[in-house]
Amino acid sequence: MKLLGISGTIIGAKPSIVVQKALDEVKRQNPDIEVELLDMRDYKVSFVDGRALSAYEDDTQKVIDMITSADFYIIGTPIFQGSITGVLKNLFDHIPPQALRNKVMGFAATGGTYQHFLVIENQLKPIAGYFRAYVAPGYVYANNDHFNKLNEIVDADVLERIANLAQEVVFMQKALKTEGTV
């Protein structure tokens, strides 16, 4: 089983830190699960313009191949202007809908206000619904106050939610795989 963590931004480190922490927790609890981080800061993905993926001359095909080959996901984004990043939305627009069907997704977001957690409920979960993906019931929202000056997560509740999210996505993936659904 392969779990892909996706940090859906090209600026800032906090989403990547939260997603990597969740991946580390999965690996700690389940050494047999392969984990990988797709940090969009490390890739150049073109805007969707209707071409076939193979026609893009940057990392677009490679990134979509990474996503479609994974079994389940933890997806993180910062919240800008009350919404997910354009980078993450563009990434979703590139993915063929059938590629995520019946796959498990867990969500994490970071932001500057305490109300931005609602973006997970109002934007990310509906996108997962469009893809017919299964969504972990819990999620992680980390406010800027939950990090210290070194960008380390220092809030015990956030760390507990990360551990819970790691457990939930693995539990769901294993249960669905056992049932033959995934």
From TrEMBL:
Its EC number is 1.5.1.38, 1.5.1.45. SUPFAM superfamilies: Flavoproteins. It is an enzyme of class 1 (oxidoreductase). The keyword Flavoprotein applies. This is FMN reductase/FAD reductase [NAD(P)H]. Residues 1-145 form the NADPH-dependent FMN reductase-like domain. Keywords: Flavoprotein, FMN, Oxidoreductase. Pfam families: FMN_red. One of its GO terms (molecular function) is FMN reductase (NADPH) activity.
